[in-house]
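quick one, 156 residues, struct below
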Amino acid sequence: MVSIVDFEPKYAQAFHDINLQWLEELFQPEPIDLEVLKNPKEHLLDSGGYILIALLDGEPVGAGALKCSGPGCFELTKMGVLPKAQGHKIGSRLLAALVEKARELQARELYLLSSRKCEAAVHLYERFGFVYDQEVMKNHGANYSRCDVAMSYPLA
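---
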């Protein structure tokens, strides 16, 4: 059974490990990645962000976060699902829950930064209604050297 739950300190290691797994598989993790994964409370939660954890039969297998990058502005970030849990539509459920959480937080802007190397994720974002956004790329794309995809979600 799949469930999506709010982050609790007991999930800090899972949040770290889930995200480090895909980062190391596809890229060289950047210093900002490592800092956020080591200190999610400081870098995400304390500034008004949010983290959700996906559980499969009670085991953390997916994670995703909303980073507050200004009043009413959120970046969808650090979203991943462990390979052993893929095929259960966890990514879709996690993404839907994060978009709903952004709405609850009264977000006016929701965007993400990614890479074409994350092909399955980019297709998921497209299917969900995210659109390519050059303004997001211009304003935020330099945050990660691997970023060659910037998208926004029409919240209205």
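The radius of gyration is 14 Å.
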